[in-house]
Amino acid sequence: SQEYTGGAGGKIDKNVVKQLNAIYEHRPFFTYFVSFVQILVMIIAVGVFSLAPIAFGTSNKQANREVADGLSPGILTTQLVQYAQPGNFWIGVSPSSLVLLAAKFTPCIRKDNIIQEQILDPQLAAETNLGCCMAQGTGINGACMPAASDQCATSVNMYFPGFTCGGPQCCMDFNLATNKSLTYPNCQRRPYNNFPRTTAYESAMAQSCSCQQVVRPCCLGLVGKCVLQTEAYCDFKGGTWHSDNLLCSELSCFKDICGLIPFAKSDSPDQWYRVYLALFLHAGFIHLLFVLLFQYSVTLDIEKLSGCVRMACIFFLSGIGGFVVSATLTPYQVSTGATPACYGVLACLLIELLQSWQLLHSPCTELFKLLLLLVFALALGLLPYVDNWGNVGGFVFGLLSALVFLPYITFGKFDAARKLALLIAGAVGIVVLMILWNVLLYHNQPACKWCEDFDCIDIVQNFCTENSQNELSRGV
Description:
This protein has 16 helices and 11 strands. By secondary structure, it is an alpha+beta fold. The strands form 4 sheets. A 4-stranded mixed β-sheet has the order 7-5-6-8, with helices on one face. Strands 10-9-11 form a 3-stranded antiparallel β-sheet.
């Protein structure tokens, strides 16, 4: 057959030229659509939640607030309260707002055994031995709070052991023999004058039901911590105050933390769809700007070559796969954005380069430039909210997706057979890896301690911890 000189100085068969001439340039509708949604989500996020302080760490706030303290006379006292408010140097909303908006945060995707053992179980155990601490000499409607015996100073307050303030003993259907109420906490309350007070026990029961409870459950932070405190204290600390509940055991803080669609079971988070939605949400305007520049300079060209359907498959498989890897290896990190999908597109460039090596004038130069871009992107991934494990996972899934979905040119029968085999291997690899990483994610593996070092570097002291790289170790 007639031969033509190729770009790399070799000979290219006429059949290859025919394939090149048959390439159709598609309209990049998917890139336009994704970019529009990402911009829209950013505007809505800032409009609803407002910007967090622009800082490379936390901003320390302190103010005098009314707090409940069973060791102080009268229960209620004014104290200096401190709060470390998280900042966001990407110019965006706070970490808690990002989680509410569907950022990747594994404790919202599945139940976390470590959080259960270290935080939730001790909170529940502490509430089994509560009594009622009541301001001394205040009578009916006096200030009171549930407290353990060592949290109530009987020299200045009254303590009624065995009765939680406003507990099941205050219900009309309370059974003294079993010490239970079948309708608590949503029961009909017994009026104070309806209580028998012939014994000290009955008198204590009546007083524990007549006092005014000044504390309610307050959910703080992103790992389910709950304290019984005043509304003023809870608001200042950025928490959620539950006025309709008496104890922390009556609620799940993760409902407030995670938002979105309520869990099917109240104590079992199940928001698996975060690994998809996080691709449209970004940490801030600077983060979004980087992603948009990439999408309009690289993703757009790949879509022109492959078409919107193929591009959508590569984008979502890379992004979702990357976030599943990230959710497994760094479960307590808040991360979001389309960077895993962008890494998948970079993998497409690598596959396209290797598949068309014979057509390029300087393939080694192009490979070197691509590797430099990958190194720069990895360095960017060492900053908070941009997840390097998600990026690496996105790159691997992008490689496999590119083998399956990118159109390719064949240089003879052997090359065609080789590329078909790679296509099949890529499809199998996507299915196997997606199943494997989902199994690891839901198997509740302990957090990888050294994985955090690949995700973030402390530019300043406590830079990573204060920027939600590990919410389990961050104070509230």
